[in-house]
Design a protein that fits this description.
Number of domains of chain A: 1
Shape of chain A: globular
Strand order of the largest sheet of chain A: 1-2
Structural class of chain B: alpha+beta
CATH topology of one domain in chain B: Immunoglobulin-like
Number of strands of chain A: 2
Mean pLDDT of chain B: 85
Low-confidence stretches of chain B: 1-17, 365-380, 474-481, 489-496
Mean pLDDT of chain A: 88
Strand content of chain A: under 5%
Distance between the termini of chain A: 19 Å
Oligomer: heterodimer
Largest sheet of chain B: 6 strands, antiparallel
CATH class of one domain in chain B: Mainly Beta
Largest sheet of chain A: 2 strands, antiparallel
Helix content of chain A: 55-70%
Shape of chain B: elongated
Radius of gyration of chain A: 22 Å
Helix content of chain B: 10-25%
Distance between the termini of chain B: 35 Å
Low-confidence stretches of chain A: 1-9, 291-295
Number of helices of chain A: 13
Chain lengths: 401, 540
């Protein structure tokens, strides 16, 4: 007979903080690595950026492997009671997702090396072995997210706000990770074209809505967006402090310091709106709280149509704000006014780029213009993304193991 | 991003490129006061690592640096040079690895510092993707196994996510929870299968993109023979349609725009080394000597204005020459005589005169042949080939030849009376060697200085395109400073009256098989050709 343990009885374990700190190594390491490839070019397995990326996988994976071993073989009844079964072993769900992600990252390593020997060292971010690596990284991140959210949901009421904060931070790290992978598609030069809005409407609304719905703090989306923004601004300010020069030929764009990433998207603006909407309508409707008076208001199940309606509102708000904000801001980022250490206009171009006017002008204005049908499709994308975010947020709120 | 070097295998020196199937670049000469022998193994993919080994004779050196220079960016667009490292256990052998990032012509600039001061040499290298090897079976099995673990693990995670994960701590899953978990696993199986299908399509797209846009493909060439005023004229036409009509003009190598080799495999075997002249953009013409009729393998060595050299190939069907034409070319001789005097005589009688440096050879005319070329002399370990006019070429080191081992082909020319003959410069070199594997997969034109195009070397040493070059107006092309220490460009070329003794060709056979080697040199104004066959063993 299995004993059912009372909920809201736990303190946040140290593993939660270590896992999120380890996770933050991934987007920071990736930004560093992109800068390394853009500045120095030549690298080895043992560059600091690569080590940081590996740490982003290794720290959560080893931490969670120890959790799995302890829970399976020496776990207390409480620990075993907050775990799921996996091929005869026991641990919280997030542990297995992270370990799965680490195995995917490991698999991508020899695959990537073979790819380089077969097709040449890639100079673009998106390739099949990198997709496996990215999938592994996102699985590691998702595992940490599941682990953190289940801890938040089991936490005692005094620790719940702190748990919510950690959850929002973890989502922010995930946003930064996704932004790293979509670097090539979100440069300011592309932000007057349709393709940029296609990219901007796919995963970002999902993650912002998820943070707003599932983290037990009032400003989940804002905290997540701010985390992403601060990671990027931090790298913009820190990377150029390090002297470096290209070590591969041909060099068309000489440089003497590490290049910074491009300025981040102003996700903070739609995040603010999403948090306000969630605060007003998204947590629980009056009818739901009347139906289930003794349940945590955030965990209440909304009526089936409420989340669909909410997703429509989120999509409209997100697309409208991101368009109104990024359109003029990208023009600013390409202007002389942004030619400074903070906004780093054109600072991100690599040594192998031939300098020219293209660096500070908009691209594909004729080939990929903003059109009404295009934006309508982007609205649909944002809607689907927001709806999945709400669904995932609701799932995470109920996660106990 | 490079994620792992755990399975690092350097692109290793075998493949198919210009020349053909013999990508490694050999240099044998001097850098300042230092006798140097350098081997550059270009990568099989771009970007990729080129492996460089340098052996310096004659004493210790303090430092050797290597620098890659891309043709368009020049030295201004090059990074700081790398130090070559002394190979462990060796006293004068250094090695280095350089990344070649772009397809096209590069040069590797070697600088040697030591007790004789500073010496620099420039070796041109082609950077191009040639790798078409599929994934090794064992590696494929390993990746598949890891993929299967991920697939099955992912299914179990999906089952747990929708089965147990939302239960209160300690609660047992109900039947409904279990069924929900199983449904999630079935759904996940479908999603994962779609992801694998999509990944496969993506991979196929990338592979097709590599094959169509990155993999080096020589331009297709047609070789047609026409008869005009009883003279056979071979027209070489390069089809530039695959490159949208773009054709980078050529620069002369050893004073010739094109070195054309005609090889007939069947009996009677025949060989010709001709030098066509350009008629229009990518069309060349050359008068044919009275070669035996039949099908010929055509190899055309060219160097482009951007320093890129390549070997173009075709098949030519050559008809039989008329009796008058044979008489005109051969005169009263039973064997072809190739010399300036003969060319001058022909020029007065032919509609299209041959180049004074054209040479040809055939069996059955009393000249060298593969059969008598392989006759062993009494001195074991040497092989002797009749080279024409009573001259003999002796292969001094024909011992066991193994693939990818330095073969350094050494030959001696002796006159009819058995004394060492005076070797005269033939197109600026003491000799030319042509190496071809029987199955046509390997072809190389080797000079005593190495396997590179001296025209490409000149391009990189000069540091900028020729005046009137089509490259001058191109955007991004930089006029660059030549190396700080001027390399001895023409040290390898010889314009002296001649030397007696040996000629040697730095080379390593790239793959096992049966090879034929044609050695061409000049003495008393006559171009001489010897033929040797050799079997190259696989490396153990």
């Amino acid at each position: 007979m299995t004993q059912i343990f009372p909920a809201h009885a736990e303190k946040l374990s140290r593993s939660v903080y270590v896992a999120v700190a380890g996770l933050a190594c991934l987007p920071i390491g990736l930004l560093w690595d992109i800068s390394h490839h853009s500045t120095i070019g030549r690298d080895t397995f043992w560059t600091p950026a690569h080590i940081l990326i590996q740490l982003g996988g290794i720290v959560p994976a080893f931490l969670f492997a120890s959790v799995a071993l302890k829970t399976t073989f020496r776990g207390t009844p409480e620990e075993r009671g907050t775990s799921v079964s996996f091929w005869g072993l026991r641990a919280p769900l997030g542990v297995w997702v992270t370990i799965w992600g680490a195995v995917a990252m490991m698999t991508s390593a020899p695959f990537d090396d073979w790819w380089h020997n077969r097709y040449g060292l890639d100079v673009k971010i998106v390739s099949p072995p990198h997709a496996v690596l990215g999938l592994g990284m996102f699985a590691v991140a998702m595992g940490v997210l599941l682990f953190v959210f289940s801890a938040q949901n089991r936490a005692s009421s005094g620790n719940r706000t702190r748990g919510g904060l950690i959850c929002a931070l973890a989502v922010g790290v995930l946003i930064a990770l996704w932004a790293d992978f979509t670097t090539e598609f979100t440069w300011p030069n592309l932000q007057h074209g349709s393709f940029f809005y296609r990219v901007a409407c796919t995963p970002f609304p999902l993650l912002l809505v998820l943070a707003a719905r599932a983290s037990k703090v009032r400003a989940g989306a804002i905290i997540a967006a701010a985390t992403y923004t601060l990671i990027y601004i931090g790298m913009i300010l820190v990377l150029p402090l390090f002297p470096a020069q290209p070590k591969l030929a041909p060099i068309y764009h000489p440089m003497d310091h590490m290049v910074p990433p491009a300025f981040p998207l102003l996700l903070i603006a739609p995040a603010l709106a999403i948090d306000v909407i969630v605060g007003l309508f998204g947590r629980a409707s009056k009818s739901a709280s009347q139906r289930q008076p003794f349940v945590d208001t955030q965990v209440l199940r909304p009526r089936w149509w409420e989340d669909w309606l909410l997703a429509l509102v989120f999509a409209a708000v997100y697309l409208g704000i991101i368009f109104l904000v990024q359109w003029p801001f990208s023009a600013f980022l390409l202007s002389d006014a942004a030619d400074n250490r903070f906004f780093a206009r054109s600072g991100h171009w690599p040594y192998f780029a031939q300098p020219g006017d293209w660096m500070n002008s908009f691209w594909d204005l004729k080939e990929d213009p903003i059109t009404f049908p295009g934006m309508a499709l982007n609205f649909v994308r944002a809607f689907i993304s927001a709806r999945i975010g709400l669904w995932l947020g609701s799932y995470l709120l109920r996660l106990k193991r | 991003m490079r994620t792992c070097l755990a399975f690092l295998v350097f692109a290793c020196c075998v493949g198919v490129e210009a020349h053909i199937g013999s990508p490694n670049v050999f240099f044998d000469g001097k850098a300042g006061g230092y006798p140097v022998r350098a081997v550059i193994c270009p990568p099989q993919v771009v970007p990729g690592l080129a492996q460089i080994t340098v052996r310096v004779q004659g004493g210790p050196v303090q430092r050797i640096t290597v620098l890659p220079v891309f043709w368009r960016a020049g030295r201004v667009g090059s990074p700081p040079p790398d130090d070559a490292k002394l190979v462990r256990g060796e006293t004068n052998l250094y090695s280095a690895a350089l990344w070649l990032m772009k397809p096209g012509a590069y040069s590797v600039e070697l600088t040697i510092e030591g007790y004789r001061g500073k010496g620099t040499l420039v070796v041109p290298v082609n950077s191009m993707a040639t790798n078409t090897r599929p994934m090794p079976r064992g590696f494929g099995i390993l990746l598949s196994a890891l993929g299967m673990v991920l697939f099955l693990g992912g299914l179990r995670i999906a089952g747990a996510a929708f089965g147990e994960s939302r239960l209160e701590p300690g609660a047992l899953p109900t039947k409904r929870d279990r069924w929900r978990g199983r449904a999630a696993m079935a759904l996940a199986a479908g999603v994962f299968s779609l992801m694998i299908f999509g990944g496969r399509k993506w991979w196929e797209f990338e592979d097709a993109n590599y094959r169509n846009n990155a993999l080096y493909k020589p331009l297709s060439v047609s070789a047609q023979v026409r008869s005009e005023r009883d003279q056979h004229i071979l027209t070489i036409k390069v089809d530039t349609s695959e490159h949208h009509g773009h054709w980078t003009p050529l620069i002369p190598d050893h004073g010739k725009m094109m070195h054309l080799f005609l090889i007939r495999d069947e009996e009677p075997v025949a060989f010709a080394h001709l030098h066509p002249v350009r008629r229009s953009g990518a069309e060349f013409e050359v008068p044919l000597p009275p070669l035996p009729s039949g099908s010929y393998h055509v190899y055309a060595d060219v160097t482009h204005e951007d320093g890129f050299s390549e070997t173009l190939t075709a098949i030519a069907n050559i008809p039989s020459a008329s009796l008058e034409m044979k008489k005109l070319w051969l005169g009263n001789s039973a064997e072809p005589i190739c010399s300036v005097e003969v060319a001058q005589r022909l020029a007065t009688n032919l509609f299209l005169p041959p180049d004074p440096d054209d040479s040809w050879q055939m069996v059955g005319a009393g000249t060298a042949s593969s059969q008598n070329g392989n006759q062993r002399s009494e001195d074991a370990g040497r092989r002797i080939s009749e080279a024409g006019g009573g001259y003999k070429l002796i292969w001094e080191n024909p011992g066991a030849v193994v693939e990818n081992l330095d073969a350094s082909l050494r030959f001696k020319l002796v006159s009819a009376d058995g004394t060492a003959a005076l070797i005269e410069p033939y197109m600026g070199m003491l000799g030319h060697a042509v190496v071809r594997r029987q199955d046509d997969d390997v072809f190389a034109h080797v000079n005593p200085v190495g396997t590179f195009s001296t025209a490409a070397q000149e391009f990189f040493v000069r540091g900028k395109p020729l005046e009137r070059s089509t490259l001058n107006g191109q955007p991004g092309l930089l006029t660059v400073e030549p190396p700080s220490v001027e390399p001895d460009l023409h040290r390898s070329h010889t314009n002296s009256v001649g030397v007696t003794g040996e000629i040697s060709f730095p080379y390593a056979f790239p793959a096992p098989g049966t090879y034929r080697i044609w050695i061409q040199t000049k003495s008393q104004g006559r171009i001489l050709t010897g033929v040797f066959d050799t079997a190259v063993a696989a490396a153990k």
